[in-house]
Specification:
about 45% helix; alpha/beta; 6 helices
Length: about 150
């Protein structure tokens, strides 16, 4: 599964504001509610529950929050670029400004883990992270992520 298949342009927030991890997760939940017909409280609860088991801040200013969500029919992504980084309790103790949230159907099996691995692999690339930080529109971000995912497809 390619990132371009998971991430809709409408689910990209190129200049988001949040002052805490909780606000980031709430904003992701609102975007998911608008774009995927989910109840925002349910998404927030699932993301918060997953985050309670350990931070999804993977380092280099990136977080990949993820959860399985009841009522979701397919794998979906939400991407946010924060105007000001926030503390996400990342493994490198650096604040986070690039967030790719991955939402999976409640019954998703290994597909969820494969998608999570792909997103993590793509966002490990320093040049791509810088391009994402410079991109100004949802379309530009979508193109960067979709192209990069194709070039790393196995």
């Amino acid at each position: 599964m390619l990132i371009g298949e998971i991430l809709d342009r409408a689910a990209i927030a190129p200049r988001a504001s949040a002052s805490s991890k909780r606000q980031v997760l709430a904003a992701i939940s609102e975007i998911a509610s608008r774009n995927f017909g989910l109840e925002s409280a349910r998404v927030l609860e699932a993301l918060t529950e997953r985050e309670s088991h350990g931070s999804t801040g993977v380092g280099h200013g990136v977080a990949v929050p993820h959860a399985r969500v009841e009522g979701l029919q397919r794998m979906c992504g939400v991407f946010m670029r924060l105007e000001q980084p926030v503390d996400f309790a990342a493994i490198d103790d650096q604040p986070v400004d690039l967030i790719f949230a991955l939402l999976a159907p409640a019954n998703a099996g290994s597909e969820h883990l494969r998608a999570l691995a792909r997103v993590s692999r793509v966002l490990r690339q320093g040049d791509l992270r810088e391009q994402l930080r410079q991109a100004r529109t949802a379309d530009a971000i979508h193109v960067l992520l979709a192209q990069e995912a194709r070039s790393t497809a196995a």
